[in-house]
Amino acid sequence: MLLAVLASLAVFFLDSRLDYFKPVRSVLSTVVYPLQATASMPSNFVDWVGEFFQDREQLREQITVLNASNKLQSLRLQKMQALERENMRLRELLGSSFRLQERVQVAELLTVDLDPFSQQVIIDKGENFGVYVGQPVLDAHGVMGQVTETSYLSSRVVLLTDPSHSIPVQINRNGLRAVVTGRGLGETLKMDFLPHNADVRAGDQLVTSGLGGRFPVGYPVGKVVSVEFPQGKAFADIKVAPAANLSTSRELMLVLPGEKIRTEPTVDTPAASEATATVSPAASEASSTLSDSNGEDNAGEPADGNE
Question: Which residues touch 212 (CB under 8 Å, ≥6 apart)?
């Protein structure tokens, strides 16, 4: 017994001080590895089976959440340049800052109107989710249109390319305001009522101006692709390519400024009361909130009015 203890202490000393048994440990580790791998196989197999048969609905929910988050982040990135320029103008004029608040709810496109003279689509969100007439609709790249008709389970959206639809915009480069109107299927948008001396260039980015109280300020609308000055006409002929993918986007975003988005349908929600309760915040929250040096709240003044 004493000899065994002394031998153990000697081996321990040689291994700790001189690293004498390192090759032996390496060989033993190699020999024992298959046993370790075999012992861990049952638990690894159980984990693999659990991941393989993970609930399908849970996976779909995760994908939906990730897609919604991705689209929202993409949209906010598109707005960044416009917000920076607007912030600079407000600081120069008023010496204070502003903030914008927007919430979005993801909807899916159900059907497309087959009428060639009407650019409208149907989405799968209606009054049960608080959708209201005039609500802005966007995709991950920019403005698509606005809601024109609602039912309890679905809504009708008119696209930017519809000839009856116009939207107030401003040029991101210089803040020049104008109106953009649709021209029909497969056509570019047109910018109306700008004289020949207007400071408009090909490549200018257009964003929503906030006028009219429906679209919040700074959302991408499109890019100027050509500027012509026809002889004998009072206004320039300006063509605009939409920023949104109007013909390919299937997942849309409904903007609801200043309101908490409902993720589940309501049970008893009258259409008239929902529309009334939702439109008012949409118009007020589209305005940027300004706070002067005395701490007074000027949230009711739109950014365009201050400018």
Answer: 168
Q: Which has more confidence, 284 or 132?
A: 132
Domain range for 30 is 10-46
pLDDT band at 134 (very low <50, low <70, confident <90, very high): very high
104 alpha-carbon distance from chain centroid:
8
- Tally of domains in the chain: 2
pLDDT tens column, 229-258: 888 888 999 999 999 989 888 888 898 865
25 and 122 inside one domain: no
Residues 81 and 166 in one domain: yes
**Claim to verify: residue 206 and residue 262 sit in the same structural domain:** yes
Residues 294 and 273 in one domain: yes
Strand partners, 2: none
Q: What is the separation of C-alpha 96 from the centre of its chain, rounded to a whole number of angstroms?
A: 27
